[in-house]
Amino acid sequence: MTQPDGEAQAGPVQVRGTVLTVRRVDAYYAMTVVAPGIAARFRPGQFVTLAVGGPVTAMLLRRSFSIHDVRADHGGTVEFVFSAEGAGTRWLAERRSRDVIDITGPLGRPFPVPRDPVSCLLVGGGYGSAPLFSLAARLRDRRCTVDFLLGAATGDRVFGALTARRTGRTATITTEDGSLGARGVVTDMMGQVIHEARTDVIYACGPMPMLRQVTSLARRYDIPVQVAVEELMACGIGVCMTCVLPVTGTDGITRMVRSCVDGPVFRGEQVRWDDVGTIPFDAVGAPGWEPRRRAAGLSAARGAPRAGKSANGD
Ligand SMILES: Cc1cc2nc3c(=O)[nH]c(=O)nc-3n(C[C@H](O)[C@H](O)[C@H](O)COP(=O)(O)OP(=O)(O)OC[C@H]3O[C@@H](n4cnc5c(N)ncnc54)[C@H](O)[C@@H]3O)c2cc1C
Ligand code: FES
Questions:
Q1: Any alpha helices (H) in the chain, and if so which ranges?
Q2: If you measure from the C-alpha of residue 252 to the centroid of ligand 1, how many angstroms do you get, rounded to a whole number?
């Protein structure tokens, strides 16, 4: 179920959701939770956060997961896909049908979709492919064509290869060990796919080094690229500033923006990839930062720009 424009309700909700299923999908787990309020509000690219560890736990931070899909059954369900790596995700993997969990969403800004029926390339790395399928459905609703380029280290970590082959105009798969598709990483194949698909727009989700490389190639081909970043998040609701990264707005000014509320989707070329994890000296509010002369003029007219203001370019 993908919401047409204008139908999604605004704002996230926190609910006690009943777990419908937890199933293994190759190297990952897919959990479906009954959460009607979240399903009704969802747009592709948004995420949920979950409390983990039960009522008495030392795991204070909620865990964030991109929403893979929402469906209308049981009043509205939300599905996400995760890798059981640390204590919180291992706890989630042990949940069973009818368990109740505390889930908040949908959070963050969704992928913008084109107005015209254009050729879209969706690039996913590992579980980063999960949010791309609801996006693909939405793009197809807009009569866009969808080509997939999915990759991972090994075949069992490529999420959704079969669905991509079934639903995409084309689906190109890469693995580093060559166990599925072409041997290599997604960006090795990107030039060829762009050429053959005559790509107009690129969407990407996956590890930060992959997103950086996808952006660099998109720039080389002069194709707009939207990336869903995955920065460490503590609160997920814009309060703690754990998730900030340097993003340059259309006004040319770099701000430290919160990927949980100003993202996680950004225009790739606006992210200062070389400076992620740092506060660049010229970012608004950095120690010793001075407004440039033009910015100072604007500031006098409009009020000084604040750190954390959206620089997502829209
Ligand atoms: C927007 C977004 C979407 C994501 N989507 C997915 C997905 O679809 N599937 C998936 O498997 N994973 C996803 N992740 C990653 C997922 O949130 C982490 O893998 C998960 O939180 C790890 O939890 P854990 O208990 O297994 O590991 P732990 O290592 O025990 O996690 C500890 C928690 O603390 C946080 N944390 C750790 N260090 C710091 C620090 N220095 N400062 C602040 N916080 C810290 C982490 O973000 C994590 O939430 C996503 C992350 C983000 C931000
Ligand atoms: S995670 Fe707290 S502000 Fe983004």
A1: 36-41, 87-93, 132-141, 161-167, 186-197, 208-220, 293-302
A2: 31
